[in-house]
Design brief:
Shape: globular
Strand content: 15-25%
Number of domains: 2
Number of helices: 13
Distance between the termini: 49 Å
Strand order of the largest sheet: 2-1-6-5-4-3-7
Radius of gyration: 20 Å
Number of strands: 7
Order of helices and strands: HHHHHHHHHHEHEHEEEEHE
Helix content: 40-55%
């Protein structure tokens, strides 16, 4: 085994954790894949003799890559970054015990990704890395370019927003369930026009490698545009799927023998479906909590 092969093997041992971190940070499976791939590229160019804790090093790299992606996304949307807390004024009033932080971390599923997206990039980074993955504030501060005390304040601010957000997020989730239910019905009926009405004109469909290898359609490349996506689903691509909650978010799930095989994950923008992700990689599906909403 060459040194590069050995390094690749060790990297693969951490891939699942890195994907989980990146997905919570970015809320997009494809962007999470991109961030993890960038971490591998940086590792392959690094002097591994200077890396003491590979898992911690990779988590830090993924955190920095995701932070850059969040800031770039916010910049493209032309939204303000917000006011950063002063370096010397740490707010500990919102600090939670380790037990509370663990419960909070476990409670944040796909249903609250819309809430996380309202946080400023540094807030989201601090909250996700510390509260959900236990990264020390010293390391979080190095990633976001702040002192540990300021990183603690960023996480505290994000924590307060998340705690107060479920009631505000409910209307969005209710609308998403309504749209996903209508989409499933239109797909089962082969109703091209109804599908088109539910889709954003620039909607796109993406499939991970496992999903792309299933079925007869060529899903190796993204399908872009409402008409192309509607045409695909009008041939009953989702007809055998069932309405479900996937980590708390309305979704469609195709199961075989009682085991979920493909999750259809929906992203909405202005009440329309802007993106559909087909997820079939067992590494993504196995950790998901799936709750079917029909009798099947």
């Amino acid at each position: 085994m060459t040194e590069q092969d050995w390094l690749a093997t060790r990297f693969e041992e951490h891939r699942g954790h890195l994907l989980a971190v990146a997905y919570r940070m970015l809320g997009s499976p494809d962007e999470a894949d991109d961030a993890v791939q960038e971490a591998w590229l940086r590792l392959s160019r690094a002097d591994d003799g200077e890396i003491v804790n590979l898992g911690g090093w990779l988590t830090t790299v993924v955190g920095r890559v995701c932070l850059d992606m969040l800031r770039s996304r916010r910049s493209r949307r032309e939204e303000p970054h917000g006011v950063h807390p002063p370096e010397d004024t740490a707010d500990t009033s919102g600090a939670a015990s380790p037990e509370q932080e663990a419960v909070l971390g476990d409670s944040v599923g796909l249903a609250l990704l819309v809430v996380l997206d309202t946080l400023a990039p540094a807030e989201r980074t601090a909250f996700v890395l510390h509260d959900m993955f236990g990264v020390p504030f010293e390391d979080v501060g190095a990633i976001v370019g702040r002192s540990p005390a300021a990183a603690r304040q960023l996480a505290s601010r994000g924590r307060r927003k998340v705690r107060g957000a479920p009631a505000e997020a409910d209307p969005s989730l209710s609308r998403q369930r309504e749209v996903v239910t209508a989409f499933l019905a239109a797909s089962r009926e082969g109703n091209f026009r109804a599908l088109l009405d539910l889709l954003d004109p620039d909607a796109e469909l993406r499939a991970d490698g496992t999903a792309a290898s299933m079925g007869g359609a060529d899903l190796g490349q993204p399908i872009r545009g409402a008409e192309g996506v509607a045409e695909l689903f009008a041939t009953n691509r989702a007809g055998v799927a069932r309405l479900a909650l996937a980590d708390g978010a309305p979704a469609l799930v195709w199961a075989q023998g009682g085991r979920p095989r493909v999750v259809f994950s929906f992203t909405l923008a202005a009440g329309k479906i802007s993106r559909i992700d087909l997820l079939a990689d067992p590494g993504r599906l196995d950790p998901m909590e799936i709750e079917f909403l029909d009798q099947g």
